[in-house]
């Protein structure tokens, strides 16, 4: 009971951690979490009674919640282009720790006393503070990036006259005022000024959003229909996720399956889950579909995997089911932060994620009260598995429908360019038109010097455009199976 309460503390206080992330640096929140975890383990080493034990486990759970939130959201702000992949790597690291820590603790308990083991774990956790200190504040790298961007714009401005001398000289002939070069310089100066104004407006917007109050963020999330729907579906999803691992051993015992088969199936799950988290992040980073749609598909896949074990009811079913669950359940950890980031600003998204996790905590407690009732009424753990399947399927369908009602921008055009004939043909036509326009412009410019050269350039450009259109049509005639299916889904 005490250890289960510790796991609930991890997510129950996530709104506090999420709110702290909107106010201070991520490494400060992570450092506070590490100190709380270490303090909890030291207290566990010398707990004289059950009351101190409860306080110690609460400190550990609170610290895990703070450090986990800090690590996840550090990855989301420090990586812009590969954000989803970074989140997948972070969650995979958490999976590696969960997979390796029990064996490590077993070695410690075999060679040291209980108090010495707890102190050793506390010291190991404190070493993580050194890694946290290597994470520079967000303001540092944003300022550096802005400075490099300004230098790049200034470099383009300084070299603008040299790069465009030929264009200016061609246009000066037709200019009545003879001031074309000055107008060119003014336009570049105006562009440079617009770039600086854009950076300043972004900084002002960021400062405004960073000063958002708690009341504002609560109103922002709890008046958003998409967020409320997603919170409900995530609560259903976590019920199936948490209950399945508690029910499977009892279901195996009911079927007479040996315990070592169940433990081996869990090992298979852990081995598959770790790389699957990275794969989920890579898939989400491609933005072929929204993260919410991807989470919905994973929920349905997990439900079907558990349904397989409930219907098949053999030891082989456990291995096959856990093999697929390792992939589909990996989305439970790697995709929720991306769902929030797709629809909310990064300055407040961590608080929204904390609200989701606290709701999932309450849903987990509720599920552990519902499953014994279903078992008592039905007399079989298979009925509980069917209930879990229902929650996962319903959560997945809700997420898919929500992703269609509240869509976000995805790279559907990229898929269709690879596999959809009509889109590919349109792309080829657009490419041919662009090539023809460029050829016409080049021909007109060259005509002022030599008509024969312009004619040759136009003929060459037309030949190139025709070849490009022919190649694009050939590509459209042989679409791949994967891209056709993706287009049909959309």
From TrEMBL:
Topology relative to the membrane: Multi-pass membrane protein
Major facilitator superfamily (MFS) profile domain span: 1-407
A molecular-function term among this protein's GO annotations: monocarboxylic acid transmembrane transporter activity
Spans traversing the lipid bilayer: 28-44, 50-74, 86-109, 115-135, 227-251, 257-276, 288-312, 318-341, 348-374, 380-401
Entry's localization field: Membrane
UniProt xrefs under Gene3D superfamilies: MFS general substrate transporter like domains
Keyword Ribosomal protein: no
A GO CC annotation given for this chain: membrane
Keywords of the record: Antifreeze protein, Membrane, Transmembrane, Transmembrane helix
Tree of life domain: Eukaryota
Main location: membrane
Pfam families per UniProt: MFS_1 (PF07690)
Recorded family membership: Belongs to the type-I AFP family.
This protein's name: SLC16A12
Naturally occurring in which organism (per UniProt): Bugula neritina (Brown bryozoan)
